[in-house]
Amino acid sequence: MITLARAVPLSSRRAFTLVELLVVIAIIGVLVALLLPAVQQAREAARRMQCSNNNKQLGLAFHNYHGTFNSFPFSWNITTDLNGSNWPIQLLPFLEQSALSNQIDSRVPAFNEASSLGFPAAAVDANLAAIKTPLPMFMCPSCPEKELHDYKVPQGALSSGVPPTDLSWTSARSDYCAVSGVFKDFATLAYAGASSTSRSGALKQTGYGGESTATRLADITDGTSNTFLIGERVGGSNVYRKRVVDTTLTQNLGPTQGGGWGDVLIGEHWVAGTLYDGSYTSDGGPCAINCSNLRTHGFMSFHPGGAMFLMCDGSVQFNSSTVAAHTFASRITRANGEVISE
């Protein structure tokens, strides 16, 4: 005898109610809200570590360069006939980029207008192509900027008749720039009531308008572990106020930011500071870290709380955005004899 199972009426089957479904969704939302900051922090920690490793790689290249030439590279150079170079270009052979270095003809400027000024077109084109090459060791992974940016130096920007015309070029981004020195309002704040005999940073400008010799380790009399070599500054041609692009400053000053590794002005960065909201004044201001990336005003990263700096001894130091002005200025200067206090 076969017994048939009794069918369960559809109306008696158990299902989720709307309230239960909403509770489950709410729980998932709370878990996501709790986990997301942790995930973001883990990602930023990884990016920050990579940024630190970039600096260490550059530090090794600086010291290998010094071991070869008995000096650090000059920060930047431009001559009256517009030939130019900078510290990243000089470091290329020490960063396993010899092929790229060989592509650059140092006798020919990398400007779009160079051919019309009488320089060989083929060499100009090769130089322009070379500086468009993105190099990971010059880019912090926390930075959201695109790889390529356009730059320009206006006619007569350096002195009367130099350059003779507007100069333009495109370069791959660099988030690390030279630390040239401290001046204007930030220097006034840092040295209020204190002596100051030299406010220059580790790397020197040479050639046109600069000094005759590059910096040696022996010239870092404030101590190589106490003195910045290069610092983190969001690269590209966008000018930031805090972490928002300032469209007016970008339009007016962005093309002269010195934000590419092939840009000579990546070697020129005196620190005048800005206001705490990142506002620009020609005389500077009290904020030098994470308020603005404007050239000759401040350092800036997308790391919370501060920015990375490569020291002259090859170590990497994270400096807080709240560091005291005198302490920060003391780490900038190479031979001012300051006693650094935390």
TrEMBL record:
Pfam families found in the cross-reference section: N_methyl (PF07963), SBP_bac_10 (PF07596)
Domain DUF1559, first and last residues per copy: 40-324
Transmembrane feature ranges: 15-39
UniProt entry tagged with the keyword Heme: no
Top-level taxon of origin: Bacteria
UniProt feature coiled coil, ranges: none
Name by which UniProt lists this protein: Prepilin-type cleavage/methylation domain-containing protein
